[in-house]
Amino acid sequence: MGTQVLNVSPPLRDKPWPAPVRALAHRDFQIYFAGQGVSTLGKWVQQVALAWLAYHLTGSAVLLGTITFLSLLPQLIVGPLAGAWIDRHDKRRLLIGVQSILASQSLLLALLTWLGWMNASVIIAMALLLGQLSAFETPLRQALIGSFVPVAADLPNALVLNAMLINAARFIGPPLAGWMIASWGEAGCFLLTAIAFAALLLGLYKVKGVPVVKAAGSTGQAFKEGVDYLWQTRSVRRLLISVVMVNLLASCYSVLLPILARVVYLGDARTLGWLWGAAGAGAFVATLFLAFNGGLSKLRGFIGIGALLCALALAALAFSMPLAVALAALAVLGFGITVSNVSTNMLLQSNAPSALRGRVIAFYIAMRFGFEAMGGLLAGATAAWLGAPVALGLAGLALLLYCAANRYWRAAP
Known about the structure:
The protein contains 15 helices and no strands. By secondary structure, the protein is an all-alpha fold.
């Protein structure tokens, strides 16, 4: 059978790109990368602004946990089914539709905030809508990366660069949001996010990608096929357990940052921006580390090291250290979470059959964000009862116990 070439974007030049950025040699990935960068920056600005608005209006730690829970829980419930559904359709067209709705929601948030109509009920409803949209948008974005990088050997690098982009936005976005909230208010942040989403939409209209074989059969059959693959592959099961524990116990820190900013450090929105930005800086450094050292053979070790760093950073935050020490601990925490999650993502996507990639990614994202949602709800309730530092300390202790047990299980015959 002859070889047929279908819409493969060639490298932009014959000379190889440096290994840490080699995926950028592909035109489609370059375009997507630029649009994704602007969009993710806007998303972080919106996340910080919504959390600050909720705490500013109500002063409720429980509401902060509820917002995180509702914005992430649909990815646990809907995400796996969404992965089976998107594997049967044109992923680029689907992402264009979902991204358009997200932009519209940000505009609505801006309008409601500007009119002074935001309250706890509206914020909860918006968080739930955002969670439902993200249950489709996040696996779509991840699954599309492979179609923009037609050389299979460049896929791990593309995933690292994508994570680097997300975490650069996570580093820049929160301090930017803190400045914007102080200068223009939360409504200005939501308006900026709507504009940022339009940048990714523009990029999606310009790329074509490599056609991927769509899953056959019904959505239910596709879902079962994905579950069978995950359940029957022991290495995948172990990776997903690690995702559950790290995100249930470590990623909950983000729920408590507004409380740390206002109650522990007596600060304002700018303080919140610096706290969030410190974690983002650590996450960005983690992606740089993986870009230069992320060979597939090393990734399983990085996952365990990342979880241990998270446990130690959470323990440090429990002691209400001076702000400079807290910023350093948050940077370590961001590094640990990102090394663990991105390494897992790289292993899962690199080893998954291309026809199953959407479902594998959807299950990973369901575990990643679904258990972060549960951890956030639990952390918010614990903080309301015992205070934010104690909640962080308990999470760190539980994660440290998991790290010890996991090391024992790996050493056992």
